[in-house]
Structures are given as structure tokens and as C-alpha cells.
């Protein structure tokens, strides 16, 4: 059951307009009696018809989000607006359950007819490849990373860089026409492998304040014998650290308690896409400015770990002023 997304900023709403093909907005006010009367109808439609990255239902309090209401010329409550690929296509004014039902169910039918072929292959509505279905009610927010601050420790220089892991394209190992059979050299490689041992440390600073709900990690080692130590392993143990001002060194990470430790079991990997879904303790990831992802070890006896893609799901908030990252959680003694 998916509840409407309560919009807390213009940036959050704009992000949903970009990441979801269709967005329905309920412009309401706390003092509006008709708004409260029709709310159960709207919430039921959301529960029945929401689809990750395809149809997203939102609620916008016009008193708290006056800039959004002004931008779309909202003068009466409730007003419902339907957006397709970021552009308004329909407006329903007033608390008329019949009109609202008809408009939203027509939208759902249109969404079904216009389902992009890429969805079956793991492509989100925004065009970015994802290895598994997005969690209900949340968007792919991977593109919120600040490219200049990305760092990746212990990577093998013959393979990709930090940004490779956050690319929106389908991994070449799944046959995207890039990299695979494209010849030798770093330009033909779109994945990352560790260097001296199986550990990797990825530092991701963000342009916005995020609420991070879950991660997807894709790893596509070539087939081979399990006891072949030349074949890279899939990640097994991950430690996650939030709101650090810099990439953590491996020794430094040993002295800091992680926000969450994750163990990926062999059965967690999807056989078709090589992707594992990682659910986070959402309450611990409500205000995230940066993320250190520490891959502690791999699943096997190999000497290296391979990662093809990492996707981040949740909600984005207000844009931050870039510069020195806030050092929340860096108090002495941690």
C-alpha cells in the first residue's frame, strides 16, 4: 500500500517530476474542509495505482509550499493536477470524487499503454538503468551525487573510476553494446575491481539533503570455477557511514562504528541482472549529505571484488551549498 508523498520542498517535487513519468499533485490546505473530505478517495487511488517511477501521487500543502502553488497558479482548494514527463496535462478543481476517479483511472490506463520497452530490461522511467524494481513510494536519486567530490580507494587502475559505479547506463556485461567486445583498454571497461585485496571504499557527497531508503548493488563477475582466485568476487559485507566530510581510510573506518552493516547472502543476487537489493534502517538515513560505502570483503576465496553499478533510492530535499561538507557525526570519541 503506497501513500501519497508529502512534498516538503520545491526541489523534491521537481525531482519527482523528473524521475516519475506521471505525477499527480493534490494541492490542499489544513483549513480546507472539502480537502479533508476527499482525502480518503485520493489515498485509496494512490494505494491502488501507484507504480515506482511511473505513477507517483503527491500532496502539497499550499500554505507551506507557496512557491509551488504560485508556480502552477493554484487559487482554490483542493486542486488536483496531473503531470506527464514534467508537464501539466490535466487539472481537476474541487472535491468531486467522480471526476477525480475518472481522471486518475484514465491516467493509469494511458500509463499502461505507454509502458516503455526498457522497463522490462530494468530501465526506469527517467531513462536510467536499474537492476531491480524501485521500492514503492521512492525514486532513484543516484543522480544527486556531487561528481567533483567522488572518491574510490583501492581500485585497480585498469578498470573504471568512482563515477563508473553511478553511471545511468546498463552494464556492458548485460549486453548494452558498450564495453563488451569493444577491445582492450580502460575505455572499454565500465565496471570497477579492487586492487591489492578485496576491499573498496567509495565516498559519495550529495548536492541535496537526502532521505536514503535503500541501495541496489550490481556485480557481474565472469563465469568460472568457485575456487578460481583469478575471478573477482561479488561483495559480501558492506559497512555504511553517513555525513563524513571526506573519504574514510580503511584504518580510520575500523575505529568508527558504522551506521549500518550489511551482509549480502548468495541468494540475494538476482540471477538475471546480478543485482542485490539492500534495505536500510530508514530512520538512520533521514538526513544524508554524504555516504561512505565500505566493501569489507567478497563472497568467496578470490583476491579481488567487482562492482558494476550502485543505485540509491529515497527522497531528495533542498539543495546544499557546495563546499566543505557538514561534519555531522564526527564528534570526538566516535
TrEMBL record:
Family: Belongs to the thioredoxin family.
CDD domains (alphabetical): TRX_family
Keyword Disulfide bond: yes
Pfam families noted in UniProt: PITH, Thioredoxin
Gene3D superfamilies tied to this protein: Glutaredoxin, PITH domain
Domain called Thioredoxin: residue spans: 1-109
InterPro entries noted in UniProt: Galactose-bd-like_sf (IPR008979), PITH_dom (IPR010400), PITH_dom_sf (IPR037047), Thioredoxin-like_sf (IPR036249), Thioredoxin_CS (IPR017937), Thioredoxin_domain (IPR013766)
TM stretches of this protein: none
Domain of life: Eukaryota
Protein name according to UniProt: PITH domain-containing protein
Organism: Aspergillus cavernicola
Residue ranges of domain PITH in the record: 130-332
